[in-house]
User: Fold these one by one.
Assistant:
Number 1:
Amino acid sequence: MCAAAACWMGGCTGASVEREPGWIYVRLKKNPATLDPARIVDLDSARIAAKLFSGLVGFDDRLRPCPDLARSWTLSHDGRTYRFELRDDAFFF
């Protein structure tokens, strides 16, 4: 019985799966409710959308705002209006 258990456990090493470059791999507990960023209200959908969509700005490893789709941005003198300059390769559809 111990030998059978040892063989069975040996098969659980999780052999690595070859991953295709350029593809996104996400382990899901369940299917996302939506991938429309404006309608996301659950964490599963949010996790996937965060990998699919870019924002105007992101955060660096020290959690400081850094450019993402925006190349740069300025804040108006009254502090109420942001003006973003987009990267040349940014597009929306």
Number 2:
Amino acid sequence: MTRILGIETSCDETAVAIVRDGCDIESNVIASQIDLHARYGGVMPEQASRAHLRAILPTLEEALASAHADWSSLDAVAVTHGPGLAGALLVGVNVAKGLAFAQKKPLLGINHLEGHVYANWLDAVEAPDFPLVGLIVSGGHTDLVLADAHGRYRRLGRTRDDAAGEAFDKVARMLGLGFPGGPLIERAAQDGDPLRFRFPRAWLEPDTWDVSFSGLKTAVLHGVRDLGIDTDHATPQERLAKLPVADLAASFQAAVVDVLATRAVRAARVFGASRLVLGGGVAANRTLLKTISERADVQVLCPPPALCTDNAAMIAAAAYFRFRAGERSTLALDVEPNLPIA
């Protein structure tokens, strides 16, 4: 039995977890900063870093207590060292290095994007098979990857501009819905007509797996202005009162989902994947999961919503397979804000 303590502080969630054998969650504690950043309409990096400093030790103590764990029962310390906000990452990495040094435990630096892939191993009835195609969609990242073994990735495509989650946040602000945009757009779209507004899909070149959402975002902006809203000065209340918010949300969501589903399903088919796995906060969107599942020729796996968003259990899960392969990080481990998955 191998128990790994994971730490995640890449953006606006302070999280600590203990995971056994890469799949069994013994504790998974998350201190959210949503209320802090909602007043700004987005994540404020300096505020995020300060909030991590305040929350990291209480979160660590709660995770250890919830798992009934002491340091003698833990085998390693894993931490996200990129990608993410530099100041936020520094909090987690420095705490992890201090703990590993003080407790004489191996240290493993983990890629945040890899963690989202490995959320599919957590509490899974059956572990995913290789090769697999992974669609990682979050506020800061949209990546399509091919994995043929643990820790072996090829990045097929990525966003050329806004990440899917970033587009959700920006459109939610246009509609007066608030932050974070993903769940608010999804909720509003439930009562909307996805065919009312024919927003564009950017398919780019025939030979690329990349995606783009900036044109879609601009199309929504023009649509909102055409409906009589001054996007520079209108209050959220005015937007909600005057706009067909449900139809706009549903039409925007349909465009994002169509592009992501088309790319992911085609990649799984072209590269002969045995599974298609989803990860990241936008993967919590049930319309995205339903659409991909209906179109795919292979089994589609997606963590429950609580494990799609940032958490430390996914970091510990990814670390387990690297730990088992003999990988270790040194105390010279540093943050890499722009770390790619491959």
Number 3:
Amino acid sequence: MTDLLFPEDTLARRIAAYENTAKANEGLHALFTAQTDRIAYLKRHRDWVEKNRWGMGDRAFHYMWMLILADAAARFPSLDLLEIGVFKGQTISLWALITRELGLNASITAISPFEGNLKPQPRLLHSLRKKLDPTYREANAVGNLHAIDDYLARNREIFTAFDLDFGGVKAIKGFSNAPEITAQVSNETFALVYIDGDHTLEVARSDIATYAPLVRAGGYLIMDDAACFLPGETFWKGFESVSKACEDIPALGFTNVINIGHNRIFQKNGS
């Protein structure tokens, strides 16, 4: 099965064969990286992201997302998707691209500040603040510092680059743990929720507690930057804070069915 390519390859087949071992995790990450480059539109999107420095993540995730979206589309009559923490729009534009290429109808909701929090500053000042300011030091350590910018405009740029319609995205501007933000989706359900927001333990746990219950039975909760306690050494593991927050997920009715690099995929129990 290792050399199968979509559509013969499926998420269900990968889950059935999965073992949480160093060999399996490293092998899947390497294989999914190669599979991304074998599908022209996935490769083109990831090449654009890397060339333009439009976000982080791994090349392997492009193929991962194709398998997840195809599986979710087969499970549910509507493909409603939610991302927490959007940055420049790499993931939501990829969702839009994949669903267009596969002929799927998707509804995308994106929750993010869309503005950044780091003013331009000399390198020396940055170093001093890391040394003297514990709050700043933690924010830097967990990847929570982003240059101030109009990230709604950046999202539109990547959508435009691939002839996609950002106007169809429900973009909710604000922090994921703010009551006025959570209220806007509290009565909705989603085929999948992707959490890639604030990486502190407190907020990661809050995001899980708030948004995991919105996943439909049989749907998926995907946690980014969450593999610090998993076996495997050839891929970046993410942050200990987010990895620890994932310990809360099984009690909410989810099973960790497969992991690709630092992305952990949990499926909500039930049909």
Number 4:
Amino acid sequence: MGQGSVVGGGTRCLLKPCQTSPTAQFPYPATRMTDSTDRRLILLTAFEPSGDLHAAPVIAALKERCPDWEIVAWGGPHMEAAGATIMGNTATDGVMGIRGATRALEVRKIHQEILRWGEHRKIVVHLAVDSPSANLPLSAQLKTRGTRVLNLVAPQLWAWGAWRAKKVRRISDGLLCLLPFEERWFREREFVAKYVGHPVLCQPLDPEILKTERDGLPPGGPRILLLPGSRTSEIRANARLLVRAFELVQGRHRSAVATVVCTTDTTARVFREQFDRLPSAVHVRVGGLEGAIDWSEIAIAVSGTVSLDLARQAKPMVGVYRTSFFSCLGAKLLIKAPYLLLPNIIAGREIVPEFVPYSGGPEKIAQAAVEFIGDGRKRAQAADDLRRVANSFGDRDPGMLASLAVEHLARTGSITNAALDAIVQTQTLPGEPNASS
């Protein structure tokens, strides 16, 4: 699962990707690390598009501070654009789009590839980015070789699997949390953990970009934004549900229009493939998320990080994550968190409707959207609540802070809560002159 919520994932563009080369093949570069060199080897692994985006600013900051270090990654195009040597393309939709035993076998194959590559190399730090089911087993094996482990995006043990805390604590030297409340939760359970900010909320909106991205969006109203998710599996599960909900809304508001934002050309094609014919009022585009949010009046969104993009612009939303009846039942038994959509999790109450997970039809979703459309006071209250959620994240720069944590662990071989506190407070390594002084 992606970090965006207990159920679902999401992506947004933090760095401009370059043209990515094909997945590297053996033999790998011959450089090997020894104890006598100052050239350190840092390994990053990301197994989904959001992880690729989260990791890219960390890599860019590390390359600036430590230009001689070797930064190697199994990841995606944003990590490559930031300066990492990409050894395997693991952060596109491929692996995480596969389900069940086939996915487990594919992840295991990638682990074996990484472990073979690292067998005669001194990997100083492994920065495992999100995807705990894929990253934790790999980190555990690297730990036996003396590699230190940091997790960028804490596993959501507070929602499910709190009983796994001891195992995760044994594997991870430190957790870099993206949600404000996680620091306290993990520290109360004896983790080294620090809230470093969230990449969706660390940069201000650019009015010029919003204006440019709004160009060409359809006139009419009410204006409804449909966000079907970033993975092909999510799109296949949710696309028809979202469009059918919009059609029910349109039955009450004949001039309603919808914009669907897909993350890539591939996901847009997968979305269109779910329909013999799309309603004429539904318009599909690739990218331009921020402008589309600005254009919209409300959104119906698959649960994930995108709910924070919506919160940043205080846009009322209905959160959705469709799954089978039995998966839905299993989730209700396993997941202990009272809310599963990120804005509601942060607020500690339901400030926007969520159907996560959900195995029903479009009627309830459409009704929730219609209630927002018809009740200006309700929309205004939701907007105020979402603004408070977005403001609660502060203005920390997760890429820069995470890079300092990696550097500190690589240089000293250990990391503590006191060291992470100092890094966040001074935005420098412990012992370095304060950049603000």
